[in-house]
Amino acid sequence: VVSENIEGTNLLVQINDLKAALKDRDERMMAIEAELAKFKELSESKLKEIERLKRDLKESQCINVQNEEVINELKETILSLEDNEDTLNEVIEVTENDLASLKELSETRLQEIEQLKLKLGYNNTQEKVVWSQNSVQLTSPSVDQCIEVISELEEEHESITLKDSSSDSTQFLMPIILERGTIKGITIYSSLLSRADILSFSSQLSTNKSLTTLVLTTGSIGNNGVMALAESLQYNKTLEYLYLSYNYDLTITSVSAESLAEFLLVNTTLSCLYLDHTGMTTDGVMILMESLKTNNTLEELWLDEKHKKICTTLPYYDHIKDKLYFL
User: Iron: present as a keyword of the record (predicted)?
Assistant: First the structure.
């Protein structure tokens, strides 16, 4: 019996030892599992870091490739520009040589022209002042040239033409030639006459007894000039023909039509008035039409074709139609 108790006791001891060993093993297993969990978590983090590094590396490689492509393109562009620069330098050199040759040729031609001028007796006065049997034409004259022309005018010189004249020359020349009382025709073109220019010879124009034709054309007068001119001519007793045609840019309009109408109501000598190819408006034409109802001396009024239709609708058209001409 004692022997069996001893064996039972030993067996219990072994069982307890085995339980203790199993408990110890379980604790170690739990510790290992905890370590494994930590290691797994760390491994996953490292794997993510590795993946990120791989992506960064790939992107970096792509950027490097792109940069390399850009660098290669820039190299090609630089080479192309260098080639173009060489070509351009060659062209510039050829052009400079051509220009030098042309300059030399031009200088030679100028010398030849000057020699021809000397042979032909060419001078500036001959170019700017042209005399004929009964007229003289001045082109861009200076005041000194105007003085010279006045000194050489004779009785047979009845017509003067002034082209591209300055205000100074016009204001100097016009009063003197109007006072002479021998000039019958004055033509001024491409010489803008301001109100001040007209007023400078207004009194001489008003009292002149020789002038029958006055032509102010091709950009020579505008509204302000026309108004001053109409006032100056109201009591002139000799002027028969007044040409104000072809003054497009300066637009003779209804602004000056009132002054022209008043002039026509008073003047008794003007027979022809030319207002074609101007900026005269319909309103201006209607004002002039009213003055024709009482003017008995004007025989011809020339207007732009565009005004014909409106004029024919006037109730007194039959009374004035023989005076109207349209271009």
Answer: no
